Amino acid sequence: MVAAIALGVASVSMWKVHQMSAPEPVITVNQPQAPPEFTPKTLTYEVFGAPGRAAC
Q1: Rounded distance, CA 12 to CA 3, Å?
Q2: Quick one: 41 exposed, middle or buried, by C-beta within 10 A (0-12, 13-18, 19+)?
Q3: Distance CA 47, CA 56 (A)
Q4: Alpha helix stretches (DSSP H) within 1-56
């Protein structure tokens, strides 16, 4: 009878120690989302006048 009670107390004690030493749940953070795709604008410069002349 004493052995059964001792075994029960030991089992409950080990179960409680196991619960207390369990790691905390891992908090996951979502990675930042990729920026939306975009098409860069293409600019065309038109230059008028003779080469070498400064604009005034």
Answers
A1: 14
A2: exposed
A3: 14
A4: 2-20
Give the whole-angstrom CA distance, residue 30 versus residue 20: 28
Say which amino acid occupies 41: K
Average pLDDT over all residues of the chain:
85
Query: Residue 55: which residues within 8 A CB-CB, separation 6 or more?
Result: 49
For 5-28, what is each residue's pLDDT tens digit? 999 999 999 999 888 887 888 888
> Alpha carbon of 23 to those of 4, 15, 17, 19: distances in Å?
31, 15, 12, 9
Query: Rounded to an integer, what distance in angstroms lies between the CA atom of residue 56 and that of residue 46?
Result: 17
pTM tops 0.90, yes or no: no
